[in-house]
Amino acid sequence: MVAWRLYPTILLVLQDLKKAAGGNSMDVVLHDGAPNVGGAWSSEAYQQSWLVLEALKLATEFLAPRGTFVTKVFRCCDAAHP
Questions:
Q1: Which of 49, 59, 71, 82 could join 29 via S-S bond, C-beta 3.0 to 4.6 A?
Q2: Cβ distance 55 to 71 under 8 Å?
Q3: pLDDT at residue 20, rounded to an integer
Q4: Is 72 a catalytic residue?
Q5: Residues 10, 1: contact at Cβ < 8 Å?
Q6: pLDDT at site 64
């Protein structure tokens, strides 16, 4: 299991993940990258969406075939409610 926070660049994340994976694929990639929420809903929703997309791009580098990517998605106050 690899966990990281506050890396200055994605390149350091990639280096650590590749080292930890040792050339193996991963069955599951979990992403918990929600931004701090302070009331600027539109910018925070945008930032969280960007984080999810970047995590998904990163996951495609390491996931095994039929692997699972799990994330949480920020729903701002403007989201349609079912």
A1: 59
A2: yes
A3: 86
A4: yes
A5: no
A6: 93
CA distance linking residue 26 with residue 2, whole number of Å: 11
CA distance 64 to 27: 6
Instruction: Give, rounded to a whole angstrom, the gap between the first and last alpha carbons of the chain.
Output: 36
* Token pair for 11: 């390149």
What pLDDT is stored for residue 69 in this prediction? Answer: 94
Q: Mean pLDDT of successive 10-residue segments in the chain (82 residues)?
A: 56 81 89 71 76 86 92 69 56
Alpha carbons 68 and 32: distance in angstroms, whole number: 14
> pTM above 0.85?
no
pLDDT of residue 36: 65
Indicate the SS3 state at residue 25. coil
Task: Give the SS3 label for residue 14.
Answer: helix
Closest to 30 (Cα-Cα) out of 61, 66, 65, 1? 1
